[in-house]
């Protein structure tokens, strides 16, 4: 695996626990769903790299969106503009985008890879609705940008809004039959709940999990998919939601 050194152009805190890094990286052509492995320190402490979804790539500009959840991401949050990042990748299979009216559902930091997807759909003039839920209104990041990108966008939070709920609670008010394909990213309980709803829309899940090596060697991210074990990092990270066996 080849390591790359890329320069941070801009760092921006999007809310109290989530920040973005805009970097220069020439010569790659990532697609929605792919991710990078980032070395967060020069002393290999923590030992394992951190998997971070690609939130956008345009004109040699790479956008990463990171939520601080542990030691590694906290160390990454201490990086500043002008510093370098050591990265590996991109990893994961490229998503084949279908030209069908689409429904995008994001929960929490799951908006990061779906932000990349939303921009691809817009560029290809594919009609889509984006539903985005978080714990609090403050954690609903990129709102202005999403309003400009999405054909229709719905924001909802579990607290602090007149109408409270989750991204999935919004679905009862949408004309689900109008959508021909769906994309979802969020915490595992959210994916399980959506799967149990058995909507007549084929959903593709952007799976987030602890990825050790990021290239399929350690088997730490294996999931059961249509009866066979698959590696999120190598075979995914995007899978048909109905084929994932969460208890497998």
Structural class: alpha+beta
**How many angstroms does the end-to-end distance come to?**
31 Å
Strand order of the largest sheet: 1-2-5-4-3-6
Query: Main β-sheet, in a few words?
Result: 6 strands, antiparallel, barrel
Shape: globular
| Helix percent band | 10-25%
Rounded mean pLDDT is: 91
In the predicted model, the low-confidence regions spanning at least 5 consecutive residues are none
Instruction: Please tally the helical runs, counting DSSP H or I stretches of 4 or more residues.
Output: 5
Work out the strand percent.
35-45%
Order of helices and strands: EEEEEHEEHEHEEHEEEHEE
How many strands?
15
Radius of gyration: 17 Å
Structure, briefly:
With 248 residues, the protein is an alpha+beta fold. It has 5 helices and 15 strands.
Write the layout of secondary structure elements.
Blueprint: E1 3-15, E2 18-24, E3 35-39, E4 50-58, E5 61-67, H1 71-77, E6 84-91, E7 102-107, H2 111-123, E8 128-134, H3 143-149, E9 152-157, E10 181-185, H4 188-197, E11 203-206, E12 222-225, E13 228-231, H5 232-235, E14 238-240, E15 244-245
């Amino acid at each position: 695996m080849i390591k790359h050194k890329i320069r941070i152009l801009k760092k921006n805190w999007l809310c109290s626990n989530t920040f973005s890094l805009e970097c220069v990286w020439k010569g790659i052509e990532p697609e929605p769903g792919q991710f990078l492995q980032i070395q967060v320190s020069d002393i290999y402490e923590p030992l394992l790299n951190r998997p971070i979804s690609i939130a956008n790539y345009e004109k040699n500009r790479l956008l990463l969106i990171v939520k601080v959840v542990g030691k590694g991401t906290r160390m990454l949050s201490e990086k500043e503009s002008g510093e370098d990042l050591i990265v590996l990748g991109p990893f994961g299979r490229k998503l084949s985008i279908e030209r069908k009216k689409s429904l995008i559902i994001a929960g929490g930091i799951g908006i990061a890879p779906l932000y990349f997807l939303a921009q691809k759909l817009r560029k290809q003039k594919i009609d889509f609705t984006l539903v985005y839920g978080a714990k609090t209104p403050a954690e609903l990041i990129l709102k202005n940008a999403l309003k400009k990108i999405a054909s229709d966008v719905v924001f909802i939070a579990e607290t602090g809004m007149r109408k409270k709920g989750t991204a999935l609670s919004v679905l009862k008010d949408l004309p689900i039959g109008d959508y021909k394909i769906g994309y979802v990213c969020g915490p595992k309980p959210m994916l399980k709940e959506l799967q149990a709803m058995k909507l007549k829309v084929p959903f593709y899940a952007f799976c987030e999990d602890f990825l050790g090596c990021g290239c399929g060697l350690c088997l730490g991210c294996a999931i059961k998919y249509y009866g066979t074990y698959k590696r999120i990092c190598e075979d995914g990270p995007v899978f048909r939601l109905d084929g994932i066996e969460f208890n497998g």
